[in-house]
Amino acid sequence: MVNVFYTLGVIGLILIIIGILIKSRNRKARDIIYILGGLALTSYSFYIKDIIFIILQIIFTLVAIYDLIKQIRK
Q: Which residues of the chain have pLDDT under 70?
């Protein structure tokens, strides 16, 4: 049986890789993908109880949210 948090971690990793591959002219879509990937990896990092990874993912996700808000306000 596959662990749901492990699956979320894999999905989050794939989403962030996809976000990296999206061209920079589509920043809103990239930020949304980063946010979804970051949230998935944040849940995984809470599951594995790795404080460094938790902090990294929270900051990564907040930065993506901030950038998305800036793009929407333009």
A: none
